[in-house]
Every structure is written in C-alpha cells, then in structure tokens.
Amino acid sequence: MKLTAFVFFLFILSSCRNEDRDILKEAKHTLIVYMAADNDLSEDATNDLREMVTGYRNTGANMLVFIDTANEPPKLFEIKENRSLLLKIYPEFNSASAKEINNILSEITALYPSDSYGLILWSHGTSWLPSGSILKSFGDDSGKQINIPELAEALPVQFEFILFDACLMGAVEVAYELKDKAHYIIAPSTETIADGFPYEIIIPELLAAQPDLKKAANLYFDFYNRQHGAYRSATVSLINTQELIALAEEMKKLIQAEGFYLSDFDRFSVQRLDVYTEQYHFDLLDFADKLYVSNKNSFIDRLNKTALYKAHTPRFIEMYDINTYCGLSCYIPHPQRKDLNAYYSTLKWSVDTSISDFLQVDF
User: In 3D, which of 306, 212, 211 has the Cα closest to residue 251?
Assistant: First the structure.
C-alpha cells in the first residue's frame, strides 16, 4: 500500500510535459537534494519529498531532488510550487558509489548553472567510520556505502553549504575531509530521529537569496526540542569550514606539547554522542578538557569560531544525558580496535593534527 501511494503521489505531482518545465534553469542559487534511500528508509524518503514540495517557495532559486528508493528506479525531480516535475528516470545503479554521486551532481550543475549551490545529503550515516564494516559510513544502497574521503572526491563543485540529513555526520573528521567542498556544513553529531529535518519549514530558508543557515539549524533543533519522551532528541551544529585548518593547528599544538597518550585514558568519562555499546563518537571539547589540563584557551577560541551555531536536547532517546556539546564530535581511539585505528590514521584530521603519529606508537 505504501508503494502504491507513492506512485499515485508521483502521478499527481509530476509531469514530463515540456509546457510544465517553465522554470529558468540559470539562477543565482540552486539547491540540490541527493537522497540515497534504496534501503529501509524508503518510506521516510518519500515522506520527506512530500515535505519538500510543501515547503518550496518561489524565490528565483532552482531546486532539484534526486531520489533512489527500494523497488523503484532512481529519479530526478525539479521542485516547483505545489508540484514536482519528473525530469528523468535512470537505470538502476548504486546511489552510494562515488562514480554515480559525481555523475548525478555533475549532470545537475551542468543543466542548472548557478552562482552558488547548496547540497542536502540524505541517507544513513555513521560519520567517518569505514564502509564495509557492521556500521554504515555515509549512504546505503542495498548494503553498499561510501567512505567520506571518496564522498569528498565525488563532489564536483564547491558548495555554499552541505546539510547532512543522516546520523552522526557532525564530526570533526567528516567536516575536515569536506572543508574544501563546502563553506558551511549543517549536521547532527548524534543519530537522528527517522523523521529527519522538517523540510516544510527549513526549505524556504535554504532557497533564499542569502540562505539563513543558522535559522535552518535552529528550526531543526526547535522542532525536536518541542517533542516529548524519546522524540525529544537532537543535536545540530553549523560549521564554518574555513576555520578548520586553524582548529587542526591548535589541536596539533596541544598534542605536540602534551602528547596523545590514551592507554590509561578513560574514554567513557567523555560526553558520548552515539548509542553504540562500544562508543565511537564523543564531544570534541569535552575530550580535550579531559585529556589536557592546561594550554587549551587558543583551541577553545578557535573551536568557538568554527561552530557558528550549536544546540542539543537534554537527553538522547532516553539513553544518556547530553551535558555538554561543542558542535563537533570526534573519535577517541579504542585500544582494542586496531582495524578502526589503522583506517582513522589515514584521515586528514588525524594526519594534520599528528594524531596518526601517536596511533602508530601508542596502540
């Protein structure tokens, strides 16, 4: 019944008739949504597509949505007021592959030249963690995922902003890999409730001539902060990627001055930001506070310039309290996870802060 309803929805809102394609392709701003939903989130994706149509406002900007759901071929839509126009149906492919992400985004940016582009990346996510493990990394197409370095390479242009509607993507490791592909990143550092971002109220902000990214992030937070019980669960931040190199430099100064010795460090004393038993995501500032006694002021100042907006609910799905949140999560290397630590040491954040040097010795 759900699939049938979706097909009916497309019939009502979509059209390939030339007379309906009257939007000017050239615009100052284009918002692209890439939904890798060929997985258990298909129903949520179709619901969010409805919300995007509801939230669309004619600001002169273009809005394109690529969506790949289970049991349906991938499709490309152009969103207009109260309707979506079906532009293309693709043969089935892996929407979580670097090649296809690059192909789709390159096609859209070529067809819709703009002064600036915004990008929403919608799917499963587990931050920087490598694909092919029991975890998911970013994206999920029938069990296939993409690593964040490959995702960064796949993005064909520099975006004004990237918004992640996916779990755990508000990590310093993710932001650092993507720092040259977006001026700003909006992302949750915890998991997200399945409903995701409330598109009917944030799309107008993202389509504005000057997108109000702080307001969009705040609308997401307010939406969940008004909920009750387990549904009152959210973190979100707005990251200025232009500050990330300086942040890495400050982290490197701390590490080189005081070391990065974790053999006796209590990882579980740091604010957790995931629900895994073997935790992988922690608050970056709380980690630095617990690891280093002094010389942190410059690092904290730079972190405050990096996270332009941050907010959190008091608890997360009634599993743990969120007592502190700086706007970015980080990994604390696990002494028994040499597989993860070896991969982590290849990430740009790990290399540029010199964490990778210590991982080769300390574990």
Answer: 306
Tokens at residue 223, please? 């939406």
Tokens 């002169």 sit at which residue? 60
Q: How far is CA 61 from CA 28, 42, 200, 210, 292, in A?
A: 7, 27, 16, 11, 47
Do 209 and 254 sit in the same domain of this protein?
A: no
CA angle (155 as vertex; 86, 332 as ends), nearest 5: 120
Q: Which helix (H) or strand (E) is 338 found in, with range?
A: helix 338-344
Whether residues 74 and 200 share a domain: the answer is yes
Q: How many domains does the chain have?
A: 2
CATH of the domain at 64: 3.40.50.11970
State which residues form the domain around 88: 13-241
Q: Are residues 230 and 219 in the same domain?
A: yes
pTM: 0.91
| 151 CB-contact burial (10 Å; exposed 0-12 / middle 13-18 / buried 19+) | buried
Q: Are residues 178 and 253 in the same domain?
A: no
Q: What is the pLDDT of residue 144?
A: 76
Cα–Cα dist 154/8, whole Å: 33
pLDDT digits (tens, 9 = 90+) for 54-80: 999 999 999 999 999 998 999 999 999
Alpha helices, H only, 208-306: 213-225, 244-258, 284-291, 297-306
